[in-house]
Amino acid sequence: MDTFFKISERNSSVGNEVIGGLTTFLAMSYIIAVNPQMLVAAGMPFEAALTATCIGAAIMTIAMGLIANRPVALASGMGINAIVAYTLCLGGVNVDWRVAMAIVMLEGVVIFILVACGLRKAVMDAIPASLRHAIGIGIGLFIAFIGLKGGGVIVSSESTLLTLGDLSSPVAIVSLVAIAIAVILQVLNVKGGLLISIIAATIVGIPLGVTPLPTSWNFGLDFSALAAPFQTIPGTDTMAIVQVFLQPALLLFVFSLLMSDFFDTMGTVVAVGQRGEFADKDGNVEDIQPILMVDSAAAAVGGFCGASSITTFVESASGAAAGARTGLSNIVVGLLFVVFAFFAPVIGMVSSSATCGALVVVGYLMLSDVAHIDWENIEHAFPAFACIMGIPMTYSITNGIGFGFISYVVIMLVTGRVKEVKPLMWVASLAFLLMFILA
């Protein structure tokens, strides 16, 4: 096992990998509760949605561990599942959930082909170092923002958009406890500190009524969503995937989802790579091709399983920060997904307040790259700034990257430095511009 996963070679240990895997799983476990609820809104049976979410995440996370040997976990992506439920199925498009899954699967197939041709890696190589750093920094702010918002420390406001939450509320108290424990343990360099903060905050939340206690148990699996794109739509004799080609307008959603998946993963891998020590100071990720191949296949598998698009999770950075360096941590995460396909109510006890501390600390750790950006050089600094601010402020990694790309090529164009822009940066920037126009 040590030889296969290169545990000693990467200065890790089995204990570090297990703790890292547990930390990642707890940080991303909310998807077990959230994704099925969204898919139920789209018309899918709850048990089928739960099974697809857990089993799909388990298969692709383990595959990433065995093939790429990096601590990058995968599950149904937030954002894309919202598009599936509230735009494709419930919005003006109003298609059957099986058709939505066919769109997701086709998007995954296209991305896989692009990766196999080397295009996705080539685009990453074309990104200036300053923007690579900016992506990681922006995601760090995004992660911290997610933690603070979910923990009630910051809340929405009609007058100021955001404001400080009620810190005397039970939800905020648990969040503050989680932050305090996570920071203190980080200062003391305690192994597994982030995991400890999650567990401790979950326990503290029980008497405060923040930690939801299980009310029912589900021990069964439902694979009725499997092969959703190839199922016949009720009331017709047409397979779901055929419907996509019968309605050409749906192919625009294939492009839209493709852009989100394509660049979200690029940003996430850089961010996790920097925390997991497999990305250099310029944001170049070591052996990135197998990571991108597995992630691209995951999108197609997600659509096939009926789980929405499965993608790399930025919460993997919490596991990397906890010590995970190899794919062994993925095996831990994957097995836990299988287990909690039966015991979802247990994971339901981990509230967003409990994970707040871990996400805030990870966000802090990821901001260290700000020192690597040359802020005196506006040609590179402003696009980096646009990217950093765009990610958390639009609640989208893809949007932030798009702002950075477009501003970079525009600045280089007006300053007469067009030759410094690699061709794929022009292509990517035009694609982003098209995406923004069509959105």
From TrEMBL:
The keyword Transport applies. It is found in: Cell membrane. Keywords: Cell membrane, Membrane, Transmembrane, Transmembrane helix, Transport. It comes from the Bacteria. It is a multi-pass membrane protein. The chain crosses the membrane at residues 14-33, 39-60, 72-93, 99-119, 131-155, 167-185, 192-210, 240-258, 335-361, 381-414, 421-438. One of its GO terms (cellular component) is plasma membrane. Its main location: membrane. Pfam families: Xan_ur_permease. InterPro entries: Azg-like (IPR045018), Azg-like_bact_archaea (IPR026033), NCS2 (IPR006043). GO terms for molecular function: purine nucleobase transmembrane transporter activity. Belongs to the nucleobase:cation symporter-2 (NCS2) (TC 2.A.40) family. Azg-like subfamily. This is NCS2 family permease.
